Amino acid sequence: MTEQRNQRPQRPLDTLGQANNSPVLIKLKDEKEISGILQSFDMHINLVLNDAEELENGEVLRRLGTILIRGDNIVYISPSP
Amino acid sequence: MTEQRNQRPQRPLDTLGQANNSPVLIKLKDEKEISGILQSFDMHINLVLNDAEELENGEVLRRLGTILIRGDNIVYISPSP
Amino acid sequence: MTEQRNQRPQRPLDTLGQANNSPVLIKLKDEKEISGILQSFDMHINLVLNDAEELENGEVLRRLGTILIRGDNIVYISPSP
Amino acid sequence: MTEQRNQRPQRPLDTLGQANNSPVLIKLKDEKEISGILQSFDMHINLVLNDAEELENGEVLRRLGTILIRGDNIVYISPSP
Amino acid sequence: MTEQRNQRPQRPLDTLGQANNSPVLIKLKDEKEISGILQSFDMHINLVLNDAEELENGEVLRRLGTILIRGDNIVYISPSP
Amino acid sequence: MTEQRNQRPQRPLDTLGQANNSPVLIKLKDEKEISGILQSFDMHINLVLNDAEELENGEVLRRLGTILIRGDNIVYISPSP
Amino acid sequence: MTEQRNQRPQRPLDTLGQANNSPVLIKLKDEKEISGILQSFDMHINLVLNDAEELENGEVLRRLGTILIRGDNIVYISPSP
Question: Domain residues for C74?
């Protein structure tokens, strides 16, 4: 079974799938950051986070609850902040 | 029936569908925010809101009534503001 | 007949269709606004307005007559200004 | 024949087709404006103008003769300047 | 034969085709301009110019020889500078 | 076998494939840089890096662990930093 | 054979193909320039260069070795710098 998985090379969205239900840190193009629990994503890297917080320079700017982030705003996603 | 729903992983637009007829807060790329009642959306995340208000730093700039927001302006959507 | 309409959920462009021949207010990405009578639109949200006026801070900058606005400039459209 | 035409709702590019061989005013995203005689267009709203002139604040900056404008630079087109 | 050609309306890229092997002036989004002899183009309006020169305010900044310009940088192309 | 490989010209993503599991340096559009071990990529040049570090002017700004970079932020990728 | 080649008009990417294994100069949207030996390209004008150097105002900022440049950053490519 390990060998079978090796036959299809892993792709970036597979890494995102492994982060489901786990905390992630999102860096946005406007320099702000958002942390939260990854609930779902699609191929445009649109994301839904639970317990989301908007951060600037590591400080919580505000609590956002559940949010849908449009993928084109994202610079990177770190599954283990 | 619950099990059937679990077989297709939830996607971000499903979360938007659950927010229909409910209040949402929209963060735009120009830093402004818009609140309103979500009436409809499509796959580009174009949205129609009723009772929309334009906000800046939490203050109401003006009342807009019903508006259609073009999806490419949106940073995030918070279904529970 | 009401039930039939309920079977297809309404989409944002349906709202635009209901605004045909009615006054709309357009907010552009460059902060300017344009008011006019909606004459037609397409799926890119390209719009044709009659009796269009360019506004800044609520003041008429100039009268434009009939114009075609390229959809990618639009932030939002308010069908009831 | 009038009734037949009414069966297909008019679209924005139809308005552009009616402006062929007529003067138009183009507002560009960089705030400049270009006037000229519309010679042709395509679905990306790429345009060819004859007798084109580049304008800023209503003054002619320079005469350009025939030009092809790439559609993604355009804010709006006014067929009756 | 003239009548046959009239049956298909001319499109912007036809104008570009007629400018092949002729001098053109290109206005770029960064305000710079490039002159040269149009050698080829494609549907994205990617262009190859021979004897290209980069201009700013009408002065030659430098000679570039043959260049391929990526179409998305272009504001307009003037076939008769 | 060498001849067979020569029959299909190499493409940019082939170079990325050869860099898998190796250190790469990423230049982003916001001038920041990110170094890490390339774990996977896709045709949009979305990338997953392990042991990623954010750099500015060659100094480590912070350690990021595993990250997914959205491809549209990337200027260039250097497989041998 | 010459006549056969004339039957398909040359396209911009053909010019890039002729520059393979030759020195090229790349102008980027952020005003920087990169020189190197063109190793491969694709239809998005993603490029791989060997012996790449980042230049500003004609001075070498740093040596980059092999790099993959994402095509959407490119203003123009000069095959004979």
Answer: 12-78
